[in-house]
Amino acid sequence: MNFRIGIFMMGAGFALSAVPALAQDAALCGGVGETGLWMGGSPEASDISTSASFIDQPGMMVPPGGETVSLFSVSTAGDYRIEANPNFDGDTVIDIRDAGGEIVVTDDDSGGNFASRADVALEPGTYCVSTRAFGGGSVIADLRVGRAEHEALTPGWGVALKGLQALTPASRRHRPRLWGRVRLMPCWGRG
Predict the structure, then answer these.
(1) What pLDDT, in 10s, does the model give residues 132-162?
(2) How far apart are CA 34 and CA 89, in angstroms?
(3) CA distance linking residue 177 with residue 144, whole number of Å
(4) pLDDT bucket at 14, cuts 50 / 70 / 90
(5) Angle CA(33)–CA(39)–CA(41) in degrees, nearest 5?
């Protein structure tokens, strides 16, 4: 029995050592950021202005009726992209708050396919991203913050629609077409 408890405690210790740092600041983002996780694992590694690439938090679990809060910082004013891409049939909503708690932007589906995406100009400071499920359910989502020139996680509405309009019947034969939450494979020319 003691052996099992020892193994459990050792496993729990390793798991907790891999968890990103909690913000632990009751006033951060109007109080919302107190339990948030830094996107890069620490405040220093979460400055997207100086990051060579985007910063991801994959597989975030958002509880039913709740939200998950992630933090990042900006040291240089510029254009930034914040995205939440739900897994399976989820639908995310994001709120980006400044350090004082004011909502800078809210988005539901601008990422396309029920994903959230905010392309926004930000001033230097600390920001919180609150991710929740549309309708109050639970959702598992991948979160990404980056500069405008970094690779996007989601296609965005404009890109997705332009891509669908540009398809011809010949090219549709080999590419799945998105219709709501279901991928349809057209069968033109097949008898």
Answers:
(1) 999 888 899 999 999 999 999 999 876 544 4
(2) 29
(3) 25
(4) very low
(5) 100
Strand bridging mode 182-184 / 103-107: unpaired
What would the pLDDT profile of 169-183 be if each residue is shown by its tens digit?
Answer: 443 333 344 444 444
Give the residues across from 103 on adjacent strands.
97
The phi-psi region of residue 85 (left if phi > 0; otherwise alpha if psi is between -120 and 50; otherwise beta) is beta
Three-state DSSP state, 23: coil
Burial of 191: CB neighbours in 10 Å, binned 0-12, 13-18, 19+: exposed
Q: Shortest CA distance to 72 belongs to which of 111, 115, 124, 116?
A: 124
- The DSSP code for 157 is H
Residue with tokens 């933090």: 71
Distance between CA atoms of 38 and 118, rounded to whole angstroms?
19
What would the two tokens of residue 75 be?
Answer: 């040291």
* Interval 84-135: pLDDT, tens: 999 888 899 999 999 999 999 999 989 998 999 999 999 999 999 999 999 8
Amino acid at residue number 177 = R
The edge-to-edge listing of strands for the beta sheet with 37-38 is 37-38, 68-74, 125-133, 92-98, 103-107
